[in-house]
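Subject — a protein and its fold
Fields — amino acid sequence, structure tokens
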Amino acid sequence: MLSQPLPTDDQLTARRQLDEARRAFRARKQDARRKIVAGAVVLRHADGDPAFRALLQLILQQHVTRPIDRQLFADLLG
């Protein structure tokens, strides 16, 4: 019976780093999906509730400052 050699410290470190990178990737992906879903819910609610739409417009005007980001909300920021 042939036994496998034990992994070296460098191999173990590389494996840990790869595992951490995969966890971080999954976390970023999940965070992005969460924001997309929440944004969709907020925008849909704003379409049907004028008071909420006005509040959302105020929040966006105060917090969305980059021109490229403001373009995304041109319909709400007027």
The helical segments are 9-48, 50-63, 67-72, 74-77. The chain has a mean pLDDT of 95. The CA atoms of residues 67 and 74 lie 10 Å apart. DSSP finds four helices and no strands in the chain.
